[in-house]
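Regression test case RT-17, inverse folding.

Input:
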C-alpha cells in the first residue's frame, strides 16, 4: 500500500549514523560529565548523580540510534524523522521490537508523538510500540498512550549498564567465537536467535525479515555481530551497536538445547569487551527475564526500566 503523502519516508543512507570512538566527541563528553568516567573509584555523590543521569541519557539515545539502524536492515523497513519524533519500521510486521516511535526531543508533546506514529504506521498497515522509562521523563507519554488505546505489554524491562572490560571465561570444549563478516554469518545469527527467542513466543519469521538485507548490516560501521559455534553448529550470538560514545548489546541468545553450557556468558563477554576495545565509555542492554541474572552476575547494573506500550493493530486515520 502506498504511504500517505503527509509522511516523509527516509532512506537510511541519507542520515549518517553517529560514530563511537576516541576522538573529540568522546573527549568532550568525558570533560563535561555527560558520560561515565570509567575507572573512577571515589566519586562524590554529586558526580555519581551526574554519571547516572548521563548513563541514562546516553543509553536511551543509543537505543534510538539502534532503532533507526534496524529500520535499514530489512527490505520492508524505513523510518520518518522530523521535528523531534522518530517513527521506525523494521523489516517485520511485529509491533513489539521491530516497529515503534521515540521522542528525540523531550520537549515534544506526547500528543504529537502519537499523532505522528499513528499516521506513519497507518500507511504501513502495522501496529507499533512506544517505550516509556520509569525515570519520570515519560510519565506524560505513558498517560497519553493509555488514553489513545495503547496497552502495556509484559513486565518492565531493566536497562542495564557496564563500565569496564569483563574477564574472559573458559570456553566449552569445541566452542569457537567468530565475528560475522558475510551473509552466511547473518543467517547463522538469525537462526540462533529465532530458536532462542521462541522461548518468549516470538514467531519464526521475525528475525529473518528484520535482517533480510545482510549486505546493509555488514556495511554498517557501528554494528558488530558475534556467533558462537559448537563443533561447527551455530549455538549462541550477540550484536553490539555503537553510538553517542557508548555501545549496547542486542539479540543476545542461545539455542535452547545447549543453555546449560554457559554460552550466553561467552558471547555477552565478547560483545561487551569489543565495545570497550573500540572506545566505548560504557555498554548498555535491555535485559530479558532469562538474561538479567547473568548480566547482573557479570557486573551490569540496572539504571532504569522500560515499559512497552503497544498498539497491536494498524491505526485508523
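Golden output:
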Amino acid at each position: 500500500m502506498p504511504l500517505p503523502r503527509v509522511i516523509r519516508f527516509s532512506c537510511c543512507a541519507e542520515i549518517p549514523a553517529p560514530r563511537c570512538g576516541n576522538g573529540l566527541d568522546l573527549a568532550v563528553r568525558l570533560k563535561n560529565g555527560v558520560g561515565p568516567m570509567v575507572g573512577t573509584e571515589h566519586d562524590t555523590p554529586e558526580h555519581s548523580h551526574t554519571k547516572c543521569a548521563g548513563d541514562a541519557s546516553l543509553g536511551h539515545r543509543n537505543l534510538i540510534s539502534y532503532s533507526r539502524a534496524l529500520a535499514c536492515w530489512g527490505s520492508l523497513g524505513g523510518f520518518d524523522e522530523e521535528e523531534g519524533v522518530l517513527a521506525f519500521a523494521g523489516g517485520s510486521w511485529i509491533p513489539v521490537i521491530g516497529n515503534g516511535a521515540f521522542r528525540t526531543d523531550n520537549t515534544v508533546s506526547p500528543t504529537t508523538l502519537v499523532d505522528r506514529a499513528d499516521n506513519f504506521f497507518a500507511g504501513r498497515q502495522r501496529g507499533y510500540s512506544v517505550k516509556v522509562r520509569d525515570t519520570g521523563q515519560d510519565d506524560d507519554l505513558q498517560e497519553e498512550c493509555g488514553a489513545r488505546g495503547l496497552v502495556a505489554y509484559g513486565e518492565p524491562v531493566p536497562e542495564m549498564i557496564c563500565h569496564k572490560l569483563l574477564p574472559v571465561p573458559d570456553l566449552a570444549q569445541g566452542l569457537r567465537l567468530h565475528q560475522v563478516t558475510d551473509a552466511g554469518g547473518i543467517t547463522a545469527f538469525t537462526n540462533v536467535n529465532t530458536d532462542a527467542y521462541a522461548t518468549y513466543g516470538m514467531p519464526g519469521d521475525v528475525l529473518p525479515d528484520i535482517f533480510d538485507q545482510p549486505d546493509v548490516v555488514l556495511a554498517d560501521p557501528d554494528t558488530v555481530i558475534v556467533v558462537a559455534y559448537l563443533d561447527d553448529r551455530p549455538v549462541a550470538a550477540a550484536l553490539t551497536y555503537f553510538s553517542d560514545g557508548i555501545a549496547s548489546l542486542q539479540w543476545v541468545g542461545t539455542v535452547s538445547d545447549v543453555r546449560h553450557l554457559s554460552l550466553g556468558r561467552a558471547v555477552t563477554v565478547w560483545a561487551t569487551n569489543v565495545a570497550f576495545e573500540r572506545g566505548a565509555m560504557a555498554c548498555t542492554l535491555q535485559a530479558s527475564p532469562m538474561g538479567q541474572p547473568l548480566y547482573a552476575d557479570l557486573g551490569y547494573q540496572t539504571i532504569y526500566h522500560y515499559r512497552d506500550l503497544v498498539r497491536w493493530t494498524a491505526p485508523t486515520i
